[in-house]
Amino acid sequence: MDSQYKLGEIEDIVTEMEELLDIPDELVEGDEEYQIICCGWWVYIPALDLCLHEGAFLVYDEKEQEFMPDFSITLIRENGQDGWLYYEQDGFVISLANWLRGRHEISAIENMECVLCRPEETE
Hey, which of 30, 38, 81, 86 has its CA 20 to 30 A from 50? Predict the structure, then answer.
């Protein structure tokens, strides 16, 4: 079931939701040196018709012979579309504010209604 929240609160809320950990991550892009993955859950912002995903930038570690997390990112995409409009190494609110390039105040972005979404098969 999808639930509505304020965008400024959602990242703290999802850290408490252990059931989201069972949703598999998705490989977004990569090659032999790096990978970008995103969480299987996402946040939909109806006012902007955008979706936000938590993700991670991974680099290949020669010693460990596997991809290891380097830093967390937020990925932004249009609702219903494949591919990404933007991603950066910051949380939802700041990443969205940067992508919007000042078209909305930070306080307005924090107060935007958002919907926590999960893939249908995990409900």
Answer: 30
